[in-house]
What does this fold into?
Amino acid sequence: MSKPTQDREVAIRTLAGLILTSAAALQLSGCVVRAGVAVPVPPPAPVYVAPAPPPPPPPPVAAAEVDMQASEAPPALPQYEQPPCPVEGYIWTPGYWAFAPAGYFWVPGTWVAPPRVGLLWTPGYWGFVGGVYMFHAGYWGPHVGFYGGVNYGFGYTGVGFAGGRWVGGSFAYNQAVTNINVTVVHNSYNETVINNNVTVNRVSYNGGAGGIVAAPTAQERMAAQEQHVAATAAQHQHLQQAAANPALLAHNNGGHPAIAATARPGAFNGPGVVGAHGATPPHAPGAYANRNYGGQPGKAPGQGAPSGAAHGQQANGKPPAAKPNAAKPHPKTPPENGRHEPETAQR
It folds into this structure.
């Protein structure tokens, strides 16, 4: 073999050795790097956790339905007697002043069948709000709520109701403040409690100049949050008939309606109709008469029944003979002065 050939083979071998050495060194260097440097681990994917819902807000005090308003205060409550309860289970709903374009008119107090067992009546009331007088409609509920502190009488002293209570499935009447006929009503009791927190007067509205200063109690606020039932169909009809009778307008009767209370809703003539103290009988000359409701269409309230029957008199003008055990004396509405009367403030 010639010398140049040998030299070429030596150079090739040397070059090959260098290449192998370099490759080995590179592999060893890579291993060292991988062994000495920590490879970062990717963070776990974020998990969304929904925040806990906020606690529910306390239920607001239910606002009474406002269905009438006027720019002037309603008249004082008239004084009148309560007719005896005609049917066991009926509940007394006191009279009140309502408002129409013609002015204030009186809606007579009356005995009403409740919508169902266990419900009591919270009367409506006028309240002075924002420069006007607004009427908060009454409603039925398991407890008596706020009615402006107005003393409607007959158990509605301004707070709660003292005229009776439910005992199981029957309504028991408190003879101390309600007029019951013992031949009709057999479930009664006699309970008298002095309520010194209520001033007895005839003011018919809350707030404003000369109005009653009263705010809902804690119990009345709770009653406002309960489920309520609106006035019955019979009560609505009673209101409509009162609105249609010009004799019940305050500017016609001077605040003394001849039909201040009735024994049943809509029964605006005949037995059981009671006039306010100082009222002009509806059949008297010059008095306004309702011509389209009560008895027969087109007849005034006194027609269709003996004259004076609506006021407890016979046709001959004499009072009827007293019936034994027929009814207790009529409880009276609050007098004009500020005396206190013994009545129970009960819910």
Notes: The chain has a mean pLDDT of 76. Residues 18 and 244 are 123 Å apart (CA to CA). The chain is about 15% helix and 15% strand.
